[in-house]
Amino acid sequence: MDNTRIEELKSITSEVRKDILRMVGMARSGPYETPLAAAGLLVYLYWEELVLIPSEPERGDRDRFVLGMPEAVPALYAALARRGFFEREHLWHYRRLGAMLQAHPDFRRIPGMDAPCLTVQPSLAMAASLARELASRRFRPRVAFVVSDEALRSDEFAEETCRAAKLDIPNLFMIILCGGDMDGGALPEGWETRRAAGGDFAALEGACGSFDFSRGAPKALAVRADGGFAISSIGAGRQGEPHSLSLGELDMALEELEVRSSEYK
Amino acid sequence: MNINKTASTFEAFCGIIARYARERDDFALLVAKDVPDCGALREIPEDKIISSCADAHSAILSAAGLALAGKRPWVLGRAAGLLGGSYQHIREAVAMPSLPVRIVAVDGGLSLAQDGAAGMLPSDIALVRTIPGMNLFVPSDVLSLTGIVEGAETDGAPLYIRLGRAPAPEFENQSGEIFRLGGARILREGADVTICACGIMVSRALEAAERLERQNIGAEVIDCYCLKPFPEQALLSSVRRTGCCVTAEEHCGAGGLFGAAAECLGRTYPVPLRSVSLPDEFISSGTPEELREYYGLTWNEIVDAAAQVWALRRR
Q1: Cβ within 8 Å, pair B62-A129
Q2: pLDDT by residue (tens digit) across A20-45?
Q3: Does A138 lie at the interface with B, CB-CB under 8 angstroms?
């Protein structure tokens, strides 16, 4: 990946983050911290890694994407819109009555969504089962499954990672978004594992490129959430408690992102 | 109505599903770890049966994944674990995305009565009825079960079927009934009282109708094998003639067949209505037959209830 492409991806990430803030701000509710943290990873996946054609979202040979983090849904919506699966206009109706982009995704209504986003664990069971079934098909599409490192701490999830390892599902690609320091214990045994930083597109490319998805064990990539984008104007004085964005906070946050993104243009 | 022979709906299901496994490419069966053994399941080709699921909820989520890949999976488990332990998984991974996952629960009602209250889930019907988009069947015999499974193979809706392990009588299909979503079958015609029953209570209802006949009360017996969508027209057309109704089910009184009938009649055509069902309490342990006797799931309770509503009906 050359520097020009890296700058392009950074610019796209910045635009996706602005869209996340706009949609959550206009809805006056919804998570934004995790979506902002996941934006870089989703941009890398949707622009560089996954095999898909936005104008043909139902092609049988496309790679599948399964989001196992309901709190990151706005990032997925913003990435899908920016990638061309549907008009960005839909983003401004996020969480509204009758809108396509509901708080909990109705995956059958949203072009580009391949699976429901579950709040229940172990959602890996669904992704693994889908991948195993697709592994027998001619083009062997991959299933990229993004999950938070919080999920890995549950016994049910650990059991499911062991089961997936035993089943040898080479096209299953679990991406663990780590909020903290990517401790070694978070990565499951029996999987081919790599690590990368979420904002480092070259590192992501290197890690993904080192996997052979046609054979071997399932793959796991631990990605450190990109914290470099933290927006100082949000939540000042609120001690980090979850809250909806006020219009004032939204304006300041967008301005801050605007200033930062000017360096990519 | 002739009663030919008896067979457990669970064993019958295993036989039917083994046949479909051989015939259909998109077939998959996921078996939770606590399912009773059945010889017919061993005939299913290895690539079409998955029995290594750690828990019922993993089986549900795996089935959802297979459905996303284009399969039409069945999940077989015990009611308490499959529904009680995986309610949210069914709601989110099957019903909300409306995936063609067919959930089949064995040991519903009082079948596992000897294991005590924690091992039983007599309110499974009520739980499923409250999930939007889920269809719900309680077959009373092998014939209705076969019809329901055939229908499910052609329909893409998520559904729940409750099976029993006790031998159930097989009723003749005199009218060439086609079993379908929202359907019910009239097993005996009568003009004085309507008895709606499901599952194992259908044979008790028929026995009660015989006893009522001796008292010159003609009872119409309806096998409500489909509880959701509820066969409202079948019930309404019967009570418009009889003017009263009794429901009989191996289920708690709230949210099951009685609940469905009461909602329908209360909204459209209020008539005297009585329920023969389990009480609102955690069920004691004992053999299933002992408990059916103890909690009044018998033909003479149905007779008593029918005589009461018949006396109360508007003339």
Answers
A1: yes
A2: 999 999 998 889 889 999 999 999 99
A3: no
Which chain B positions have a beta carbon within 8 Å of A160's beta carbon? 54, 58
Span A56-76, pLDDT tens digits:
999 999 999 999 999 999 999
pTM, to two decimals:
0.91
List chain A residues with CB under 8 Å of B53: 125
> Can you read off the two tokens belonging to residue B270?
């209020």
Which residue ranges in chain B fall short of pLDDT 70?
1-5, 52-54, 173-176, 315
pLDDT digits (tens, 9 = 90+) for A197-232: 888 999 999 999 999 999 999 999 999 886 655 666
Task: Provide, as residue numbers in chain B, all residues whose Cβ is less than 8 Å from the Cβ of A120.
Answer: 57, 61, 88-89, 92-93
At residue B174, the pLDDT reads: 65
What residues of chain A lie within 8 A of the CB of B88, using their CB?
119-120
| pLDDT (0 to 100) of residue B238 | 97
**Residue type, position B244, single letter:** C
Q: Does residue A237 have a pLDDT over 50?
A: no
Verify whether the Cβ–Cβ distance A120 to B93 is below 8 Å.
Answer: yes
Q: What is the DSSP string of chain A?
A: --HHHHHHHHHHHHHHHHHHHHHHHHHT-S--HHHHHHHHHHHHIIIIIS---TT-TT-TTS-EEEE--GGGHHHHHHHHHHHTSS-GGGGGGTT-TT-SS-SS--TTTSTT--S---SSS-THHHHHHHHHHHHTSTT---EEEEEETTGGGSHHHHHHHHHHHHHT-TTEEEEEEESSS--GGGSPTTSEEEEEETT-HHHHHHHHHT--TTSSS-EEEEEE---TT--TTSSTTTTT---PPPHHHHHHHHHHHHHHHGGG-
Flag whether residue A12 sits within 8 Å of chain B, measured between CB atoms: no
Quote the pLDDT of residue A139: 86
Chain A: nearest CA to B66, how far in angstroms? Answer: 5
